[in-house]
Amino acid sequence: MRGAMGRIENGLTAIWYIEKVMPELSDTNVRFIIAGSHPSEKLRSYANERVVVTGFVDSIDEYFEKSLYFVAPLVLGAGIKVKVLEALSSGIPVLTNEIGIEGIPAQNKKHYLFCKQPEDYAEAIHKILDGQIDVKK
What we know:
alpha/beta, Rossmann fold, 3-stranded parallel beta sheet, two-stranded parallel ribbon, 6 helices
């Protein structure tokens, strides 16, 4: 996930993903990397070997190059999300909901994977890890 982590919607989204989706991925070795400026102390408190809170990064490109997918399970927000556009243009699978894809002319299962519930994210990630979803860039 990427964004200004000091913004309430980004912090809440990251915490939602950590609490709801990461437990569904306990059988994997995936890490959730949260790149963004000003993460709250509460968000930083979740950091461990599977949850990485980087703070501000100069360039997100190196993270996209090393990632199998990008998640944007936004819990609040409106309008086009630049972070989602950047991820879409990077070529990695983007997993997001109606808030994350709002205003972006993209098709589910062609340009991104629509996920709403924690189980949706976990299922899509398991399919990526199992090779059922092509991640070639």
